[in-house]
Amino acid sequence: MGVEVSVEGLTKSFGSQRIWQDVTLILPTGEVSALLGPSGTGKSVFLKSLIGLLRPEQGSIVIDGTNILECSSKELYEIRKLFGVLFQDGALFGSMNLYDNVAFPLREHTKKSESDVRKIVMEKMELVGLLGAEDKLPGEISGGMRKRAGLARALVLDPQIILVDEPDSGLDPVRTTYISQTLIDINAEIDATILIVSHNINLARTVPDNIGMLFRRQLVMFGPREVLLTSDQPVVKQFLNGTMIGPIGMSEEKDEATMAAEQAMVDAGHHAGGVDDVEGIVPQMKATPGMPFRQAVARRQERVRDILHTLPENAQVAIQDSFEESFGPYDDTEDFSIYEEPLESV
């Protein structure tokens, strides 16, 4: 099972440039979360901070009971073993075939025999749909296959936390959907805590259990997916609808005059792009039939039920509707944790 990641008051700068400040969130155990935001808002910087590649100036990152901003180098090395990371480009070694790329962490960090290595590598390559491609070089395959090979490599050490940096980068919408389905299936298979950094709207609407958004050096919000998907905050609505109308501009921020001028154009009949206020919540992607029951579903319902009264009214309604869809009429006395076998409606 995955582990909880607790971030509190995190602030990161490069010289005099503040990237983001006072970021506080919890990645719940074994759930899939997504961190969204326009390009240039520091999403990848946040991922690198979680694994200790970058060091924020303030705050804490507590993983499995250890604050990695205060621990020793030896402790950080051990904490990093909990992670699997999929980089934007897959970060494969161009001179190695896919088998050797995936086997690399096992050969580098364990003393397993080659027969054990082969068993693990083939298992992970099957999980990401790459059986039969072991002998191919990264330059001989598509971008989507390179992403899946990078994901297989991230999985071979059985990580409890998986960080995924823009899995849609360079991929068409169909292949992005395949990668998204693979991530949900992996969560069902190994119950790892997953954080996906993305600016892909469709992925944001269909994949995660929880969503956060970075904008103007702040974490705008973070919580159950229904909170952002029903939010009336202008920046959230603009981002999720992909429209020009709102505070996000080409240089990230707009002044009031620009926003007023664009709104006047829309009022005059000019189309602002995007999908124009998508109504309702798109159903969340489910694990492929035949995969284990995704334990995060029941855990999340139990967790969200406890905080339901603190959420905006629109989100409460959407959450209760989703509860009824998955488990029948909502009953706040029912213990959802008893569901450990696949349910026909899940």
TrEMBL record:
- One Pfam family per UniProt: ABC_tran
Where in this chain does the record put each ABC transporter domain? 5-241
InterPro entries documented for this protein: AAA+_ATPase, ABC_transporter-like_ATP-bd, ABC_transporter-like_CS, P-loop_NTPase
**MF GO annotations:** ATP binding; ATP hydrolysis activity
Q: Is the Transport keyword given for this protein? A: yes
Q: What keywords are annotated for this sequence in UniProt?
A: ATP-binding, Nucleotide-binding, Transport
Q: Does the keyword Electron transport apply?
A: no
Q: What is this protein called?
A: Phospholipid/cholesterol/gamma-HCH transport system ATP-binding protein
* Organism whose genome encodes this protein: Rhodococcus koreensis
